Amino acid sequence: MPAEIVPSRDSTEPCAAPARIRRQHGDGLKLVAVESPPVTELHLTVTPMRGESINAMAQRLAEALNPWDATVVRQIVFGSAAACPATLKTLRQVLDDPELPVAWVEGTGCGDHAIAGIQTHAIAGARVRTLSDNGRPLARTWEDALATHCVVNPILPTRTQATPPEQAREVFENLQTGLASAGMTMKDLARTWFYLDGILSWYDDFNRVRNDVFAHNELRPHSLPASTGVGGRNPMGAALAAAVWAVRPHDQAVKVMHFAPSPEQCPASSYGSAFSRAVEISSAEFRRLLVSGTASIARDGKTEHIGDARAQIERSMQVVGAILESRRMTFTDTAFATAFFKSPADAPLFADWLARHGRQSMPVVCAGCDICRDNLLFEIELEAVQAGG
């Protein structure tokens, strides 16, 4: 359904009951519903069935989402750029949302189907506001008992003929504009996603731009958002596409965001990347953990297991498992995950890891995307949710 424009604070009333988390794991569709009355958050992961058309895939998503009377606040599609116009039109039609916010990322390969997967975060039980500027949608916001949440998605430059670093600066300017429309600043950032076309040719330049912007906005190593930065083209042909999630507590004296280190790795800021390994967000009767893109990187910041995709997958999952354990969670709590492969041919190695560890039902999209170092073969990001404070 379309987002409401009228603001509401209905969802800021104290929860009458503890959160309940429901999980449905079927072929081609995983649903994780976090029910924290009056608000329900839905996490849907849709992957293509054999021989399935794009229209049929979009229809399955709509059929899973529509009974909840929910509004999409964040959606990402990993798939062929050529499939974007028709798929986007179909998604907006079947979800009855003409301004549906969709980030589209094309990797180096998406298997046998034009779409590798669709991840959808939707809200029911709270009014979702679409914030616009001169008729152009900027962001979507919603409120729960503790905070206002703002998602700006997607964020693209307009000057696509400029140099990549110049486009990156414009993306950060647009990011700040979107946050400002919700009365927020960079200090409210919890999570960022950056998809760089030709990442290996300018990732150092991107880091310099990001570091400079964060420094000017007084973001420090102990308060940096979780982040993913991988290679991926976008249909506009821009050097960079981005998305962000920001959180502002209703009561500034209440700490809602907790910046979590990795027990197995050094801070990313130690080697020039401005992000936290993970950020935990408290949302009344449940917790969510946003784990940054994680690869096979040692405590000293160097790549481990060069040339060995299986070992890099094993190490990456060990690191993520340790982050989860440090926050009293496990892989069972996963709501979303994205696995990135420099070579899509390595995807069966990850499927083998899932099978060996009994995680075949994990809600994960596997996408062929370049990683930020030429010797990294695998990266995974993850969001986990758990009932309780």
Could you characterize what this model shows?
This protein is α+β, with helices and mostly antiparallel strands and 389 residues long. It has a single domain, classed as RutC-like (60s Ribosomal Protein L30, Chain: A), CATH 3.30.1330.40. It contains 6 helices and 18 strands. Strands 1-2-3-6-4-5 form a 6-stranded mixed sheet, covered by helices on one side. A 6-stranded mixed sheet has the order 7-8-9-12-10-11. Strand 16, helix 6 and strand 17 form a beta-alpha-beta unit. Helix 3 crosses helix 4. The chain is globular. The two termini are 31 Å apart. 52% of the residues are buried.
Primary descriptors:
6 helices; 389 residues; globular; 6-stranded mixed sheet; 60s Ribosomal Protein L30, Chain: A; alpha+beta; 18 strands; disordered N terminus; 22% helix
Question: Quick summary of this structure?
Answer:
With 389 residues, this protein is of the alpha+beta class. It has helices at residues 54-65, 84-94, 164-181, 199-216, 309-326, 347-356, and strands at residues 20-26, 29-36, 39-46, 71-79, 102-105, 115-124, 129-133, 136-143, 147-155, 189-196, 226-231, 240-249, 257-260, 278-283, 286-294, 334-341, 364-368, 378-387.
Q: How widely separated are the two ends?
A: 31 Å
Oligomer: single chain
Average per-residue pLDDT, rounded, comes to 92
Whole-number total of structural domains: 1
Rg from alpha-carbon coordinates: 19 Å
Which consecutive residue ranges, at least 5 long each, have pLDDT under 50?
1-16
Order of helices and strands: EEEHEHEEEEEHEHEEEEEHEHEE
What global shape is seen? globular
The amount of helix comes to 10-25%
Using DSSP, what is the number of strands? 18
